[in-house]
Amino acid sequence: EPEVTQTPSHQVTQMGQEVILRCVPISNHLYFYWYRQILGQKVEFLVSFYNNEISEKSEIFDDQFSVERPDGSNFTLKIRSTKLEDSAMYFCASKAGPTSEKLFFGSGTQLSVL
Amino acid sequence: QQQVKQSPQSLIVQKGGIPIINCAYENTAFDYFPWYQQFPGKGPALLIAIRPDVSEKKEGRFTISFNKSAKQFSLHIMDSQPGDSATYFCAAERGGGSEKLVFGKGTKLTVNP
Q: How many of the other CB atoms lie within 10 Å of CB of B28?
């Protein structure tokens, strides 16, 4: 089965530093997402992205966060100035089209902010 | 209104048992209800999903029961196996163009041999 690939699997950063989390969605997919999961808590929606623009974002996705599809294959999440509470597992997801129900998740990037 | 409440938090059954995980929601605008399975170190994977126009859906050993009037849905795993040990999340998505999945808090299932 095709896979969503995320790199790195673990990232450690100092508070206040910028981080970029990278994802390669499944190649023919058009809809892209970021979710996060704080340890022991539920998976939370951050943002959805289609046609090179954000289609929906949550209250968590404030001005410190941005997403980009810099080329035809990568999809990135940038956190400009990390905070301790940004420590979480970040999942990228993608799906083929608007009527497609199956959302494919990557294995995640564990971000630790010290 | 945006919450999906999931119970129990953890569940232990013997091989062959039928674990049942329950979820409840408030927002009647939700129109898609998937269940995800997550193994340690992996992302959630879609297991089975249902829309409110049916009351039950089966795929292999997995069954969703849906009660629209009670705003509840549940996952049943028939003939459970140790390989089913994982965390299970219910979720809901609102219609009308929203692409946001709202997840429950998850149920850690352990199936003992």
A: 11
**Cα–Cα distance between A29 and A4 in angstroms, integer?**
10
Name the token pair of B110: 């352990």
- Distance between CA atoms of residues B73 and B23, nearest Å: 5
Q: Which of A109, A16, A91, A14 is nearest to A48 (CA)?
A: A91
Question: pLDDT tens, B57-68?
Answer: 999 999 999 999
- Segments of chain B with pLDDT less than 50: none
CA atoms within 13 A on the CB side of B32: 19
Per this entry, what is the length of chain A? 114
With CA atoms as reference, the chain A residue closest to B88 would be A42
Between chains, do B46 and A102 touch, taking CB under 8 Å as contact? yes
Interface test with chain A among B10, B53, B101, B102, by most A beta carbons within 10 Å = B101
**Euclidean distance between CA atoms A31 and A46, whole angstroms:** 14
Identify whether the C-beta of residue A18 lies closer than 8 Å to the C-beta of residue A110.
Answer: no
Q: Which residues of B touch A43 (CB under 8 A)?
A: 36, 44, 89, 91, 101, 103, 106
Dig out the tokens for A69 from the structure.
């599809």
**In terms of DSSP bridges, do strands A10-13 and A109-113 run parallel, antiparallel, or are they unpaired?**
parallel
Please tell me which of the candidates B44, B45, B46 has its beta carbon nearest to residue A43: B44
Render pLDDT for A25-82 as a digit per residue (tens, 0 to 9). 999 899 999 999 998 888 999 999 998 999 999 999 999 999 999 887 899 999 999 9
Contact present, B6 and B22 (Cβ < 8 Å): yes
